[in-house]
Amino acid sequence: MVAPSDAIPAKPPLPMGVVVIGRNEGSRLDLALDSVLSCQVPAVYVDSGSTDGSPERARSKGFPVIELDDSSPFTAARGRNAGQHELLRRHPDISLLQFLDGDCALAANWLARGTDYLQAHPNVGLVFGRRREANPRDSLYNYLCDLEWDGSPGPSTSCGGDVLVRREAFQDAGGYNPTLIAGEDPEFSFRVRRAGWTIHRLGEEMTVHDAAMKRFSQWWRRSVRTGHAYAECRSMHGSSAERFRVRETDSNWFWGLAIPAGIAVVAGMLGPAAWGALLLYPAQAIRIAVRERRTRSEGALCWGCFCVLSKFPQVLGQASFWWHRWRGRRTALVEYKGPTPNRD
User: Fold this and answer.
1) DSSP 3-state assignment of 293?
2) CA dist., res. 142 & res. 208, Å (int)
3) What is the spatial distance between Cα 343 and Cα 162, in angstroms, rounded to a whole number?
4) What are residue 65's DSSP bridge partners?
5) Which of 129, 168, 246, 266 could, after both became Cys, cross-link 204 (CB 3.0–4.6 A)?
6) How many C-beta atoms surround the C-beta of residue 92 within 10 A?
């Protein structure tokens, strides 16, 4: 007997296309574009001001290329919006949009599996699967990314940058917010859910990602960017019934600023013994590790430790957002990795 999840849909497959976005991805882009070519579906590539020849690389493989100008800041959200507009202009019949970051390669069977799921579940607006890190053992920070991408299959509140989107859900949500320098995926997911659609994570392999993070400074900058995204998303939707990103931002301020400042004040009054309160941090890391063992049996303690440590750069990211907002300025794009060497 054929399992329901493996059954062939009664209706013809929904027509789909792929939007690839990139900025200075070097040879990583080759892997992304080649994985799309093997799927034999309509696709476009959107470039955000690359200086490494990425547009020419895509054109040489036959991809239509959209090069964003610098009239407004480069963001992943802006690139995805431009890509879907061009893809639908060229192929008006497309019903599903697969968004793919230029540092990721599609798994061979993902598009078929994701399409089948959306075909069978008309209330689901977004579906995504397992994103794996290409070289998790190359560095601690790559390994942390692989842990981050992991999660249990089932209903979800948000997706990442690689996602298969129903055209109607994309339009109902109004697309991505092009002004966000980070956090555009959870914010888009929030509006998709608010429009009445649901989001689902499958256990299927979806993409292989190349974080290329080998230095602590890269991890730190990425965490600063995350904090900025938390603050900006809270400023937009924090007053909603869901209180979007309120818990995350409050946690950042509590662990990243309030506790160390409080300990310093108490130590100044009562003496060095007050610094013993810093043991709250390893205790919190252990608590997170115990909780995460349900989904991250391997690396739970490592994950817990860096979750706690990330509060410090994240609170800096929040402070940066509010500082620039008070001054009436927008924060520039925060990048944490450079291009890989080109392959000849």
Assistant:
1) coil
2) 12
3) 24
4) 45
5) 129
6) 8
Q: What is the DSSP string of 184-253?
A: HHHHHHHHHHHTT-EEEEEEEEEEEE-----SHHHHHHHHHHHHHHHHHHHHHHTTSTT-TTHHHHHHHH
Give residue 328's pLDDT: 86
Residues β-bridged to residue 19: 44, 99
Q: pLDDT tens for residues 200-239?
A: 999 999 999 998 899 999 999 999 999 999 999 999 999 9
Q: Are 101 and 81 in contact (CB under 8 A)?
A: no
State the pLDDT at residue 336.
61
What are the structural domains of the chain? 4-214 (3.90.550.10), 234-326 (no CATH)
Dist CA 56 CA 123 (whole Å): 39
Residue 71 burial (CB < 10 Å; 0-12/13-18/19+)?
Answer: exposed
Residue 70, both tokens:
């610098």
Angle at 156 between CA 16 and CA 313, to 5 degrees: 105
Task: Please state the pTM of the whole predicted model.
Answer: 0.89
Encode pLDDT of 313-342 as tens digits: 999 999 999 999 998 887 766 666 655 544
